[in-house]
């Protein structure tokens, strides 16, 4: 199974962080908050479409992840998956509507296609 998607996975968004053991990481970044409880552990990974589907089963709360291959994006929320094109904003309507329904801020619904 080709690992042709790239994505950023925040460890705190998962119900079981042991799944991270099975992924291929490109970079790791930990946010600089002074309080360790406030830090996010972020992993840039190469993943397959099958791994994306598996990750989607383990997202908690209103967290989401997105993965890209070129300009094709897959955004996964708990129980929901959206596929759209980064350059064609008309294809974003459903994912934006859903993200807003969860109360996510607009600046978090930008789905950048660049790494850490």
User: Structurally, how many domains make up the residues?
Assistant: 1
How far apart are the first and last residues' alpha carbons, in Å? 24 Å
| Helix vs. strand class | alpha+beta
How many helices? The count is 2
Main β-sheet description: 6 strands, antiparallel
Overall residue-averaged pLDDT value: 94
Q: What amount of the residues lies in strands?
A: 25-35%
User: How are the strands of the largest sheet arranged?
Assistant: 2-3-1-4-5-6
Radius of gyration: 14 Å
Overall 3D geometry?
Answer: globular
Q: Helical amount among residues, as a percent range?
A: 10-25%
Number of strands: 6
Give a structural overview:
This protein is of the alpha+beta class and about 120 residues long. The protein has one domain. It is built from two helices and six strands, in the order βββαβββα. The protein has a six-stranded antiparallel sheet with strand order 2-3-1-4-5-6. The longest helix has 9 residues. It is globular. The two termini are about 25 Å apart. The mean pLDDT is about 95.
Spell out the key features of this protein.
116 residues, alpha+beta, 6-stranded antiparallel sheet, 2 helices
In short, what is this structure?
By secondary structure, the protein is of the alpha+beta class. It has helices at 49-56, 93-101, and strands at 5-10, 24-30, 41-47, 64-69, 72-77, 80-85. Strand 4 (64-69) and strand 5 (72-77) form a beta hairpin.
């Amino acid at each position: 199974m080709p690992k042709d998607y790239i994505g950023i996975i925040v460890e705190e968004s998962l119900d079981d962080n042991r799944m991270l053991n099975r992924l291929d990481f490109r970079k790791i970044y930990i946010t600089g908050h002074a309080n360790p409880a406030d830090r996010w552990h972020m992993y840039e990974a190469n993943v397959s479409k099958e791994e994306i589907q598996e990750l989607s089963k383990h997202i908690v709360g209103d967290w989401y992840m997105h993965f890209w291959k070129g300009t094709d994006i897959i955004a996964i929320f708990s129980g929901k998956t959206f596929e759209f094109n980064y350059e064609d904003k008309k294809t974003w309507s459903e994912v934006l509507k859903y993200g807003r329904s969860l109360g996510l801020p607009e600046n978090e619904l930008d789905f950048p296609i660049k790494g850490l």
